[in-house]
Specification:
Strand content: 35-45%
Order of helices and strands: HHEHEEEEHEEEEHEEEEEEEE
Distance between the termini: 13 Å
Helix content: 10-25%
Shape: elongated
Largest sheet: 8 strands, mixed
Number of strands: 17
Oligomer: single chain
Length: 303
């Protein structure tokens, strides 16, 4: 059915750079938002499943990429996807309206038609009001709903880039946003991570498996070690994918928050005050400190 959870650097892997699709400059602003929605009406050739990326020309029949807070949307008769990004908020939605059309791919649990949605924001932060090293608390409320059929997948990842080398950190963020992998992107470390899906009967999964119609997401919480006065970046990514009549709606998610130590102040290049994320009454409070690697996709194998 789906390709999934590998490393984020593998999912946005080298190949055709994202900059060729969305026109990013070599040195993007230190605060930036990006949304992508794509739909394909049929299965890809096996070699593209094995070697291609979602930014390879021809990967989608319909694709839209949006910088800023606008909605990226794509739809065909076989699927639809939407994504929207703002600082502190990620929103995605994907739905499939057709079965996998290639029996050989179905046997390996992949295949199209499929729909993908990705929401990304990046911001540069500095903590003021102290000296030496301190600890920040970060949290995210990830919430949504899977469809009534198998075939939905979703993930969230919050990454920190803080090597102490401002030029290297800027290059790492730019490389991630341009769909490039390399030594610089290894500077990114996952702080909060979540990956869930609704697998089809007869298949196992290496991420958290849920039943059709289940709620997506939970409250995630963790900590970041920082140095006063030294800039660092945070990159927040929410993704949804659907095939084989699956669906995931997470268009009121993910809500990010950050809390400074007493007496300290957090300044961001986007000029946003990221209030601590507070669990909603309907959300089960399960705190997860993630360090699972960068988010993306991997193959599921048959049981």
């Amino acid at each position: 059915m789906l390709k999934h959870f590998q490393g984020w650097s593998n999912h946005w892997a080298a190949g055709v750079a994202l900059s060729a699709v969305i026109g990013l400059t070599a040195a993007p602003a230190s605060a930036q938002t990006l949304s992508l929605a794509g739909v394909r009406d049929s299965s890809l050739p096996q070699n593209l499943y094995d070697t291609g990326t979602i930014f390879t020309p021809g990967y989608y029949d319909q694709v839209q990429v949006q910088n800023g807070t606008g909605v990226a949307a794509a739809s065909t008769v076989n699927g639809s996807a939407r994504a929207q990004s703002d600082y502190g908020v990620n929103r995605v939605e994907a739905a499939s309206f057709a079965p996998v059309d290639d029996e050989a791919l179905r046997q390996t649990s992949v295949g199209g038609p499929f729909a993908d949605a990705f929401s990304v924001w990046a911001d540069r932060f500095v903590v003021q009001g102290g000296t030496g090293v301190g600890t920040l608390s970060v949290s995210a409320i990830v919430s949504g709903q899977f469809g009534a059929q198998p075939g939905g997948f979703g993930f969230y990842d919050l990454m920190v880039v803080d090597s102490g080398d401002s030029a290297a950190d800027a290059r790492a963020v730019a490389a991630i946003l341009r769909d490039e992998s390399g030594p610089d992107t290894l500077l990114a470390t996952s702080v909060l991570s979540l990956a869930q899906e609704v697998p089809a009967p007869g298949f196992t999964t290496d991420v958290e498996a849920l039943a059709p119609g289940a709620a997506f997401g939970r409250v995630l919480a963790g900590q970041i070690t920082f140095t006063y006065g030294r800039p660092f970046y945070l990159i927040s990514v929410l993704g949804a994918s659907a095939n084989d009549f699956g669906a995931l709606s997470a268009f009121n998610s993910a809500h990010f928050g950050i809390t400074a130590p007493a007496g300290a102040a957090i300044v961001s290049d986007a000029g946003v005050s990221y209030a601590a994320a507070v669990p909603e009454p309907a959300t089960g409070v399960l705190l997860v400190v993630g360090c699972l690697g960068l988010a993306g996709w991997r193959w599921r194998q048959r049981a």
